[in-house]
Amino acid sequence: MKTTWIKNTLALTGIVSTSLLLFQFTSEGTNHVSVDVRNHAYLPNNMAFCEERVPLSIIDVKERLDREMTVNINLHSATTLIIKRANRYFPTIEPILKKNGIPDDFKYLAVIESSLTNATSSAGAKGFWQFMPETAKEYNLEVSSTVDERYDVVKATEAACRYLKSAYNRFGNWTLVAAAYNRGMAGVQRQMDAQSVTDYYDLYLNEETSRYVFRILALKEIMQNASKYGYDLPKDVLYRPIKTKTVPVNYDIFDLATFANEQGINYKILKLHNPWLQNTNLTVSPGKTYSIEIPTEGYKK
Asked: Where does the Transglycosylase SLT domain lie (predicted)?
């Protein structure tokens, strides 16, 4: 009996000690998380997209924004990389939006579509603006075996502007335009007609489109106020734009690796700066001229 009691006492002591350690560890972890939430997860009192007010007084609207803010604040590596890339690519995207009369906030649509990378979706959408092949061709992007201009940031942004202007001519509201970029103009219009509403925030939509605009809003808020949300990145860690020169090409290139060497770079660097080149050669149609970007800095060993 005594031996059993001793064994039970020792076992209980071990359990209590382990529990205390786990409690301490969990408590510290919880406190750490609560500090992050307390300091960085406040929702702004007012918010707008393209100067169109977000009705945060509506309960589900506020909670949907809270969800996307909470998710993206805590996607530390992904959000950090997005902020770094934005320093390189926003200076290219912003003037194209402005030239085409598209509000600057739409650069955050590119952020949520691709994280500012030439991504490929499971459905086959590609590039910063995630065009499907047929839509790309409809908006004057070339998609062939040797060229895919969905991967050309400048041309894809121009094509996105054409789509966005077309959608605005239909809806007269930039928030609905953003939703239509995800669901399609016809898809948004069908839901508006079926539900007899004209405001995105009044629509009952599928999960993806329901979250879509709120993802844009969340990334806009986080990126515009990065330090407030714990992303206080020094300037020297941001990816800076790389200076390039443009080489016009109106002739067939039979070996892009050889062409790259003639330009003083290698095939890897050529592809990094011209991801729209889809093969090891380039076939140029009569009357067509392509602009190939050649970096003038950053690649000397």
From this structure: 98-196
Cα separation, 82 vs 195, whole angstroms:
36
Q: Rounded to an integer, what distance in angstroms lies between the CA atom of residue 82 and that of residue 103?
A: 20
Q: Over pLDDT 70: what percentage of the chain?
A: 86
* Domain that residue 274 falls in: 244-295
Q: Which of 198, 199, 200 is nearest to 211 (CA)?
A: 200
Residue 133 phi, psi (nearest 5)? -55, -50
Q: How far is it, in rounded angstroms, from Cα 270 to Cα 29?
A: 46
Is the same domain home to 215 and 252? no
Q: Is 281 exposed, middle or buried (0-12, 13-18, 19+ CB in 10 A)?
A: middle
**Residue 126: strand, helix, or coil:** strand
* One domain, residues 157 and 191: yes
The answer to whether the predicted template modeling score (pTM) of the entire model surpasses 0.90 is no
Going by their DSSP bridges, the two strands 52-53 and 244-249 should be labelled as unpaired
